[in-house]
Amino acid sequence: MSLKDDISNDMKAALKARDRVRLGSIRMLQAAIQRCEVDDRVMLDDAGVIAIVEKLIKQGRDAAGQFVKGNRQDLADKELADISVWKKYLPEQLGDDEVNAMIEAAIADTGAASMKDMGKVMGQLKARLQGRADMGQVSARIKARLAG
Q1: What is this structure's pTM?
Q2: What is the average pLDDT across 88-98?
C-alpha cells in the first residue's frame, strides 16, 4: 500500500472518530499533495509525498517559531499539533550516531577535504537520508566536519 493510500485511510479513520485536529492536518497534507500533482502534472510516488511532508513540517516549525515570538502560543500549538500528525508519514528517523557514520562514509567516498567539496557530500547523502534525517542539521554537521 502506498503512502497516499495510508493518508487517505487515516483521513477516513479521523472522520469516523470525529477527530477534528487530526482530520484538519491530514486534509492540509492531501491538499498539498494534490496541488503539487496538478501543478507539475505528475502522480507522486512515496518519495515525492515524503518530500511534501518534510516541506510542510519545515514550514510548520518556522511558523510555530514566529508565533512564539509574537506571543501567540495558541497558534504555535496548532502548528505543533499538525507537525505531530505529519511526522507519522515519514520513515523511521536515524539516530545521531548513524547519521554521523553516513557523513564520515560520504566524506571518505568523495574524498572531500574542504568546504568546496560540500556539494559532492550533500549530493551523495541526500538520496540516502531524505526523510530519515533533518537535512538542515546534516548540512550543519558536514560544514563543521569539513571546516575543522
Answers
A1: 0.81
A2: 92
